[in-house]
Amino acid sequence: MKRATLLVWLLLVAANDRAATELFPRPIPQPLAEHPGNIFLAGEEVVLRVPPGGGRVCDYDDKEIVAIGAAQERVSLGQLPVGFYRFRGAGQSNWMSCAVIAPLKAPTPLTSPIALDVAMSWFYPDEKMDGVASLCALAGVNWVRDRLAWGEMESQRAQFANVNRYDHAALAQTKAGLQVLQVIHLSPSWANPVTKRFPLDLRDAYRFFREMAGRWRGQVPACEPWNEADIPVFGGHTGSEMATMQKASYLGLKAGNSNIIACLNVFALHNRAQLEDLNDNEAWPYFDTFNLHHYAPFDEYPKLYADFRAVAAGKPLWVSECALPVKWAGDEKLKEPTEADLRVQSERVVKVFVCSLHEGSAATFYFMLPHYVEGQTQFGLLRPDLTPRPGYVALAAVGRWLADAKPLGRLRALPDTDRAFLFQAKPDGQTRDVLVAWSTSGQTSLDLPVKSLVVLDHLGRARPAGDRLMLSSAPLFAVLPEGSAKQFQLQSPPQAPAPLAGQPGPVVIQALWPESKIVLDQSAYRIASGTNESVPLVVYNFSDSRVAGRLEVTAPKGWQANHFDRLELAPQSRTELRLELDGRNAVASQPIETVRIAGDFGLAGRPVLSLRLTRSGSGSAKTESNSSIANNQP
Prior knowledge:
With 634 residues, this protein is an alpha+beta fold.
């Protein structure tokens, strides 16, 4: 795209306050001339530059395709079928890869749930961003997740950076027709000396997200205000703290761009106490999507999703990180999984999407595209030079054959070892029923009540079509005529509860407990026995008008609490209060007690703050990361 045309394009997007993908038809992606990562489309000539010394090119099953002479450095392999290929140099343990994927025959739908964590800003320099974005688009990815360092964008309060790598990443991904989800996970030191914790003054969060939403209007249509705030590495916040941060962030995001998707600051763990604590704080009017992460075995998905669904208030579930990763082995410099584990990784890519979408995820972001290691675990679908692992080829199969997938159900009456899920999807822009099936033990067969139009393996390679599938651990896609679902015995997919009513208001109540008093696994605050407790509170007015109202405290049975006079709050102001709690005369104290502060500010709404208290001091904070990018940048 020429620079002048691009400038007009971006100005039009900003003026209309809409995403570029809404204003301009998403094109069918075409490969870049240089074919970054050695990714080709079926029908193209596959040309590789190989190291000197000769060797051989093998397919996914290690079958030799062609021998390469010692003097050859640029090799044409002709037109290869869809698949994963490897060049093995003579006498070398390392290898070089390439892939052939099927060309998309229709643009990826803007509602497709196929998404990918790319972390473009942190992993790739500016000159590689267009190539990486192209690889995402070619694979049929709809949403991509990036990363943002708040302190790098706002080095001092209200001092925002000029154009930088984050702007370049947003533009590169938008130009490729991708929808961008942005996320942060640290406060600047000027906003909180303990940078892993939320800002002490929530007006800083409000202002930052207002500025970012406006800065990237039309380029970044969604934002998570914090990454995995529920675990210690990213702050170890209670559900109550997460709810309060969410409210301020939501109001800032919407002030900057009313059309932005304000996602929930995302959960890493499956901790019922934190989930219930968030829910008790009535945060649901302040998020458009309920976001979660998981790295659980597939058969644990139903319980895990059910617990999150129960507190999602009927909002769409977005799974912005998920995988079941493999380990690397051998050369520490390469950090490459074994060939057997690379096969496992590629099979699991399909299973992650299938099981997540069946549970009702509206957007599932696989973790992750770049070469990224935590300890002995390798997450990446690409190698450092952008060449693919087999998992990338599997991602492209998912992106094409499960485009715009909506769950229809899981097949009943199957052997315990078999898994089969049916979706309505739009492969190649045509509405079809698509069955994805595999076996967890050995090889079995599955008879279909209708003949398949197309059958493909987990890499998107064609297999014999018909009315019988030969199952193994590697999933198969069976593309069926639209309406075939009525021929199957199906267990219906889980249904989201009805959306809860509620409107966001500009008044937000914050408790500023010391971090040392948090009992994280109970999402509670430790109260000293035998004395009263004084809790610092802050009440914010995030509107541009003066508001007035009252706060009412509901203390646990037998507890005493102070009352507050009528409050008047200037526009964009904060007022500090003290909540005095005395539970010394309570007859029977429960392990967890709850104090609730509810406000009535008329047209400015009814803010709520709910706090969980414990006298025992029992419980422990979890210390491990949830397989996510750690404290800062790689």
